[in-house]
From TrEMBL:
Source organism (scientific name): [Mycobacterium] fortunisiensis
Enzyme Commission designation: 3.6.1.22
Domain Nudix hydrolase, residue spans: 167-292
GO molecular function: hydrolase activity
Pfam families reported for this sequence: NUDIX, NUDIX-like
Top-level enzyme category: hydrolase
Required cofactor(s): Mg(2+)
Entry protein name: NAD(+) diphosphatase
Record key words, sorted: Hydrolase, Magnesium, Metal-binding
PANTHER family with a match to the protein in the record: NAD-CAPPED RNA HYDROLASE NUDT12, NUDIX HYDROLASE, NUDC SUBFAMILY
Length: 315
């Protein structure tokens, strides 16, 4: 077979970009965190996980605007910018930028991820993941006791027993199945609009490896037996707390599709030329819905788009 062994991601997935120092040592250094608070920047995330954006960057206000001399209990520490300035995030109503002439708009990560610079993408993805976790983790999983944030928002502690819990991440695999030559499988979930297709994904089960999950999920969803499962890359997906782990695998176009779990409405083998033509239409939200294109493909914020584009770019 040709092509698939050199297949890799052409770009870092949008939500996997790094532009700031996570500075994890400061999470337990209360004195250092407090010292940096006076000059720290603040990211506000509202209840709909929206932020203010201006010029491709997330709007960061002054932490001092909260009127406290140290980080409040509900603030989460995101790291340091390249100049050493601390950045924190809080769940709150949004406030306009300090410059009244700045052209700012309210957007969420799904709709704005492709316009963010690296630093903004990292800060918003991290803040969204942490704040969503705190919203759902106020009580101990051990005894139901009310817990309190600790370590700059990176853990929660039962003040009575001392039991500590950390942010939960749900790993999921996402895989492009192809024949090793010029065709790949795309599928449409039952809840999706007509013509919107993507690659296959599913959550990893307890006691299961990523590779085993790929084989199981593809068999369950479309009935294909795949082989030669190879890792591509990963991307956080804080909706609310997933980590998407990307793969590609080889399938047999002669094997019939079987839709046994009810999640997939239809699937088909598409040629590289067909997929390239669909990519030229943009993503599903921007493409002309009245066009004659057989396919609408996922947006650039998803690792699915990067995987599809990287495979389609092969000669």
């Amino acid at each position: 077979m040709t092509g698939h062994r050199t297949f890799g991601l052409r770009h870092v997935p949008l939500l996997s970009r790094v532009g700031a120092d996570r500075a994890d040592a400061l999470r337990t250094d209360i004195d250092a965190a407090t010292e940096g608070w006076a000059e720290a920047l603040l990211l506000r995330v509202d209840r709909r996980n929206q932020v203010l954006i201006s010029g491709g960057r997330v709007v960061l206000g002054r932490a001092s605007s909260l009127g406290t001399d140290k980080p409040p209990e509900h603030a989460v520490f995101l790291g340091r910018l390249r100049d050493g300035q601390h950045v924190w995030a809080v769940r709150s109503a949004l406030e306009g930028p300090e410059d009244p002439d700045a052209d700012a708009e309210v957007l969420d990560l799904r709709r704005a991820g492709e316009v963010f610079d690296d630093t903004s993408a990292q800060l918003v993805a991290t803040a969204t993941a942490l704040l969503n976790w705190h919203d759902r983790a106020r009580f101990s999983a051990v005894d139901g006791a009310l817990t309190r944030p600790a370590k700059g928002g990176w853990s929660r502690v039962d003040p009575v027993s001392g039991h500590e819990e950390f942010p939960r991440i749900d790993p999921a695999v996402i895989c492009l199945v192809h024949d090793g030559y010029d065709r790949a499988v795309l599928a449409r979930q039952t809840a999706w609009p007509q013509r919107l297709f993507s690659i296959l994904a599913g959550f990893v089960e307890a006691g299961e490896s990523f590779e085993s999950c790929v084989v199981r999920e593809i068999s369950e969803e479309i009935g294909l037996t795949v082989s030669d499962v190879q890792y591509l890359g990963s991307q956080p997906w804080p909706f609310p707390r997933s980590l998407m782990v990307g793969f590609h695998a080889i399938g047999d176009p002669e094997q019939p599709f079987v839709f046994s779990d009810g999640e997939i409405a239809e699937a088909d083998w598409f040629t590289r030329a067909e997929i390239r033509a669909a990519l030229d239409q943009g993503d599903w939200s921007a493409a002309d819905r009245d066009s004659s294109s057989r396919l609408l493909l996922p947006g650039s914020i998803s690792i699915a788009r990067e995987i599809i584009e990287s495979w389609a770019a092969l000669d």
